[in-house]
């Protein structure tokens, strides 16, 4: 117990060599729960015992049972010779009697300064490296023409990368849109003119009348194809059966592909992208296999008719594109902080193609997902979103010259009194958002803690079967959710054949294209009942769908719930104004025969309210919805609904759905928006605590290779403070465990005379030693001489702010210049959880 207590004191573990975790990163995501226990299985997954094991998360700091580091103390054979065999950076001279010390790290070693899986990057170090690189390129640009060209190309590389990301993201979004539209219609029938045409495209060249445009002879339902006719009970049952079979086939194929090839392709991906953008590393989450499988399975999942959308996963797809394309440019490939700037821009491009809203995409990246968003990233995000939207517009996936299926234009202005129902829709959106978050998190927690999580294929099968069986009888749940939203946003015209537009027409009062408010016909009342049933189904089925092991976005289902509620309220207001136009509230602005109420506008406001209640977006949400409608005059209703929704939802629970899933999964995410209001000090949080063993440190010039190897062998910390001596405890710097391991192993292999009794020193000059001593090893180049320090009396409010704004991994605590302890990001997260009356041990990789 004492050892375990000691092993929880210092630092954050900085991973092992990248090749060891490559296979692990592709393992199913559920294996990460809990991560601290799952790491124990690494010995059975190709991880050699007898070598340095530093595979713990730098946030988790759990001792790995059985992962002993059996260093060869008596001989000089390096245990990592297999991994280090390719290194050739040793540039020391020959060993002789007069020169027995060596700094073979004058050239950087491969692996030194890099990060391993499930580690947090050091933002300060990465930004410092980039500044050094930029200074070097600038100084060299004055020496030759070639160096000047290199400097210009380096400056231009960021814009070129944004161009590639926009082109690739837009192309993939167009492919996904076209494929999903076709496969959705495939559940109901097939086109005889060409099976690759969806229903709408199939009937484009048909000679049928406008009112019968959906009944063209080229399109055959499955009953017409199999039994020759589409009428009657047997034909209905056959179509019902084919609908369910296709839905099950699509969803099962999706979950099997995810489970077998890319476990990270499930879900929306936005919680993980937020965590990655905050500095955490999840190898493989933005890799090529994830991109390929997510693109394919997203089409399958959307086509299956499940209550999910493709907009959230498109952000993940765009970020995968950004991460993969980063490897084309050294500046972004070798710097994790620079790469995260690119990923922020890629997220903007993802929302741009998802909603056809380039400006909304930039604001979404700024407001919702990005952790570090400098002005330069804002410009590049704007450019990437522009290119992505232009590419999607060129592909024209919907054949209507629009970027989204549910683009609408309203012509009638809204009245001030309508703000009351708009605010009511905002209240409904906030209540729905809070209800959904609590219910979905409770269900996902049950999935994690019970046997349900062990059967993802069965879960998808059951939910798909229930969804398909309930959806087919109701035409508003049978159609795709995007088509449903398009139908609800639609402003009824003379030629509309939808049941939502079956009003009692009085053409004597029709003036031009503007239709007055009319009495609802039987079709409208039927549609209202069907929409009410669809609302109940969407509200509950989405709770169980979001979080399954298939790609699943939340934007479209949330918007559908709000749009249904908004359309119901809009029709109610319209009929109220028609039958009671002499009431005081209508008399001033809504006379008989006038077009006063636009139900489609209410649907749009309701969609914004519900999406805001779930995600807690405000500015970006309003801009996205405004770009969808193309009308400036509806910004105020959208703002009123979005703010009311956020206030209502925040009154019930402060977290949006993405933050709630981050906390549920135990990701090390330090929320920058929340205030820390408690009066604790650094000494209350630092380790070691009172009655704990002393802090593990390395001295600057008095420890042997064997001593350092023993410390690495017996601890699992990510790094170690370097002090002048154990007696003085005066701080010199901080050295990372991973850099120590690689440096010592390379020295054993590449440098003659380095044995277990060789002295390691971190000073400029070697300590005086007798001539009989073996060669010394100089490791000053891997020492961080400027670690961030605070005093023991620093308020935790300031410490938390430092961690948030500088992106620190750890912070050393001193008293009168002497080292006292260390505070890691994990310690900060645990402390915040403890003050919030949460279990601190469940914060990381829950």
From TrEMBL:
<dbReference type="InterPro" id="IPR001807">
    <property type="entry name" value="ClC"/>
</dbReference>
<feature type="transmembrane region" description="Helical">
    <location>
        <begin position="527"/>
        <end position="548"/>
    </location>
</feature>
<dbReference type="GO" id="GO:0045177">
    <property type="term" value="C:apical part of cell"/>
</dbReference>
<dbReference type="Pfam" id="PF00571">
    <property type="entry name" value="CBS"/>
</dbReference>
<keyword id="KW-0472">Membrane</keyword>
<dbReference type="GO" id="GO:0005769">
    <property type="term" value="C:early endosome"/>
</dbReference>
<comment type="similarity">
    <text>Belongs to the chloride channel (TC 2.A.49) family. ClC-5/CLCN5 subfamily.</text>
</comment>
<feature type="transmembrane region" description="Helical">
    <location>
        <begin position="314"/>
        <end position="330"/>
    </location>
</feature>
<keyword id="KW-1003">Cell membrane</keyword>
<keyword id="KW-0547">Nucleotide-binding</keyword>
<dbReference type="GO" id="GO:0042802">
    <property type="term" value="F:identical protein binding"/>
</dbReference>
<dbReference type="InterPro" id="IPR014743">
    <property type="entry name" value="Cl-channel_core"/>
</dbReference>
<feature type="transmembrane region" description="Helical">
    <location>
        <begin position="416"/>
        <end position="435"/>
    </location>
</feature>
<keyword id="KW-1133">Transmembrane helix</keyword>
<dbReference type="GO" id="GO:0005247">
    <property type="term" value="F:voltage-gated chloride channel activity"/>
</dbReference>
<feature type="transmembrane region" description="Helical">
    <location>
        <begin position="240"/>
        <end position="265"/>
    </location>
</feature>
<keyword id="KW-0832">Ubl conjugation</keyword>
<dbReference type="GO" id="GO:0005829">
    <property type="term" value="C:cytosol"/>
</dbReference>
<protein>
    <recommendedName>
        <fullName>Chloride channel protein</fullName>
    </recommendedName>
</protein>
<dbReference type="InterPro" id="IPR046342">
    <property type="entry name" value="CBS_dom_sf"/>
</dbReference>
<dbReference type="InterPro" id="IPR000644">
    <property type="entry name" value="CBS_dom"/>
</dbReference>
<feature type="domain" description="CBS">
    <location>
        <begin position="776"/>
        <end position="842"/>
    </location>
</feature>
<dbReference type="InterPro" id="IPR002247">
    <property type="entry name" value="Cl_channel-5"/>
</dbReference>
<keyword id="KW-0067">ATP-binding</keyword>
<keyword id="KW-0677">Repeat</keyword>
<dbReference type="GO" id="GO:0003014">
    <property type="term" value="P:renal system process"/>
</dbReference>
<dbReference type="GO" id="GO:0005886">
    <property type="term" value="C:plasma membrane"/>
</dbReference>
<feature type="domain" description="CBS">
    <location>
        <begin position="686"/>
        <end position="750"/>
    </location>
</feature>
<keyword id="KW-0129">CBS domain</keyword>
<dbReference type="GO" id="GO:0015297">
    <property type="term" value="F:antiporter activity"/>
</dbReference>
<dbReference type="GO" id="GO:0010008">
    <property type="term" value="C:endosome membrane"/>
</dbReference>
<dbReference type="Pfam" id="PF00654">
    <property type="entry name" value="Voltage_CLC"/>
</dbReference>
<comment type="function">
    <text>Proton-coupled chloride transporter. Functions as antiport system and exchanges chloride ions against protons. Important for normal acidification of the endosome lumen. May play an important role in renal tubular function. The CLC channel family contains both chloride channels and proton-coupled anion transporters that exchange chloride or another anion for protons. The absence of conserved gating glutamate residues is typical for family members that function as channels.</text>
</comment>
<keyword id="KW-0868">Chloride</keyword>
<feature type="transmembrane region" description="Helical">
    <location>
        <begin position="342"/>
        <end position="366"/>
    </location>
</feature>
<comment type="subunit">
    <text>Interacts with NEDD4 and NEDD4L.</text>
</comment>
<dbReference type="GO" id="GO:0008021">
    <property type="term" value="C:synaptic vesicle"/>
</dbReference>
<keyword id="KW-0406">Ion transport</keyword>
<keyword id="KW-0813">Transport</keyword>
<feature type="transmembrane region" description="Helical">
    <location>
        <begin position="286"/>
        <end position="308"/>
    </location>
</feature>
<keyword id="KW-0967">Endosome</keyword>
<keyword id="KW-0333">Golgi apparatus</keyword>
């Amino acid at each position: 117990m004492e050892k375990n207590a000691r092993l929880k004191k210092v630092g954050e573990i900085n991973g092992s060599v990248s090749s060891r975790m490559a296979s692990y990163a592709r393992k199913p995501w559920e294996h990460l729960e809990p991560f601290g226990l799952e790491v124990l299985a690494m010995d059975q997954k190709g991880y050699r015992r007898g070598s340095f094991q530093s595979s713990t998360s730098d946030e988790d700091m759990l001792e790995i049972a059985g992962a002993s580091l059996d260093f060869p103390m008596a001989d000089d054979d390096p245990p990592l010779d297999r991994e280090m065999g390719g290194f050739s950076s040793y540039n020391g001279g020959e060993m002789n009697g007069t020169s027995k010390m060596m700094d073979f790290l004058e050239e950087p070693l491969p692996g030194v300064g890099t990060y391993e899986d499930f580690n947090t990057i050091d933002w300060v170090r990465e930004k410092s490296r980039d500044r050094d690189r930029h200074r070097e390129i600038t100084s060299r640009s004055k020496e030759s023409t070639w160096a000047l060209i290199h400097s210009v190309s380096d400056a231009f590389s960021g814009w070129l990368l944004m161009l590639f990301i926009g082109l690739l993201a837009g192309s993939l979004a167009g492919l996904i849109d076209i494929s999903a539209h076709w496969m959705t219609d495939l559940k109901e029938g097939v086109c005889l003119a060409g099976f690759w045409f969806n229903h709408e495209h199939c009937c484009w060249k048909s000679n049928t009348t406008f009112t019968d445009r959906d009944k063209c002879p080229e399109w055959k339902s499955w009953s017409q194809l199999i039994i020759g006719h589409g009428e009657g009970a047997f034909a209905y049952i056959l179509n019902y059966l084919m609908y369910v079979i296709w839905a099950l086939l699509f969803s099962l194929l999706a979950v099997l592909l995810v489970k077998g090839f890319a476990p990270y392709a499930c879900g929306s991906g936005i919680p993980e992208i937020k965590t990655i953008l905050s500095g955490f590393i999840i190898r493989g989450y933005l890799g090529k296999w994830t991109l390929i499988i997510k693109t394919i399975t997203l089409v399958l999942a959307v086509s299956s008719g499940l209550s999910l959308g493709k907009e959230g996963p498109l952000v993940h797809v765009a970020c995968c594109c950004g991460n993969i394309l980063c490897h084309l440019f050294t500046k972004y490939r070798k710097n994790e902080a620079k790469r995260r700037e690119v990923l922020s821009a890629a997220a903007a491009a993802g929302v741009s193609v998802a909603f056809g809203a380039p400006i909304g995409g930039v604001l979404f990246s700024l407001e919702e997902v990005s952790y570090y968003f400098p002005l330069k990233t804002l410009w590049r995000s704007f450019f990437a979103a522009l290119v992505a939207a232009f590419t999607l517009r060129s592909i024209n996936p919907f054949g209507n010259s629009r970027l989204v299926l549910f683009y609408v234009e309203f012509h009638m202005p809204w009245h001030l009194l309508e703000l009351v129902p708009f605010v009511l829709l905002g209240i409904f959106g906030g209540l729905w958002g809070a209800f959904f978050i609590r219910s979905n998190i409770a269900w996902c927690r049950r999935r994690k803690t019970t046997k349900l999580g062990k059967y993802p294929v069965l879960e998808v099968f059951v939910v798909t079967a229930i969804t398909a069986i309930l959806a087919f009888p109701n035409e508003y749940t049978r159609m795709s959710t995007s088509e449903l939203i398009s139908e609800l946003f639609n402003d009824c015209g003379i030629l509309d054949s939808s049941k939502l537009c079956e009003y009692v027409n009085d053409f004597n009062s029709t003036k031009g294209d503007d239709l007055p408010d009319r009495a609802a016909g039987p079709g409208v009342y039927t549609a209202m009942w069907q929409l009410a049933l669809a609302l109940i189904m969407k509200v509950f089925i989405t709770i169980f769908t979001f979080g399954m092991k298939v790609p699943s976005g939340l934007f479209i289902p949330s918007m559908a719930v709000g749009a249904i509620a908004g359309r119901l309220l809009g029709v109610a207001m319209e009929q109220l104004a028609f039958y009671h136009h002499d009431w005081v509230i209508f008399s001033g602005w809504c006379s008989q025969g006038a077009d006063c109420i636009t139900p489609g506008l209410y649907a749009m406001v309701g969609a914004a309210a519900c999406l805001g209640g779930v995600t807690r977006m405000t500015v970006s949400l309003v801009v996205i919805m405004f770009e969808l409608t193309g009308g400036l005059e509806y910004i105020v209703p959208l703002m009123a609904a979005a703010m009311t929704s956020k206030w209502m939802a925040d009154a019930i629970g402060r977290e949006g759905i993405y933050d709630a899933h981050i906390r549920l999964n135990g990701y090390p995410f330090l929320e920058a928006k929340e205030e820390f209001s408690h009066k604790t000090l650094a000494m209350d949080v630092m380790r070691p605590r009172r009655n704990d063993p002393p802090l593990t440190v390395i001295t600057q010039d008095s420890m042997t290779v064997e001593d350092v190897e023993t410390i690495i062998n017996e601890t699992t910390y990510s790094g170690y403070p370097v002090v002048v001596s154990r007696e003085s405890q005066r701080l010199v710097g901080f050295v990372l465990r991973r850099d120590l391991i690689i440096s010592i192993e390379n020295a054993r292999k590449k440098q003659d005379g380095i044995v277990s009794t060789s002295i390691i020193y971190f000073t400029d000059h070697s300590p005086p030693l007798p001539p009989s001593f073996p060669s010394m090893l100089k490791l000053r180049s891997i020492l961080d001489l400027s670690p961030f320090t605070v005093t023991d009396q620093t308020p935790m409010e300031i410490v938390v702010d430092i961690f948030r704004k500088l992106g620190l991994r750890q912070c050393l605590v001193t008293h009168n210049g002497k080292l006292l302890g260390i505070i890691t990001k994990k310690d900060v997260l645990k402390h915040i959880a403890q003050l919030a009356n949460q279990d601190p041990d469940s914060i990381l990789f829950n």
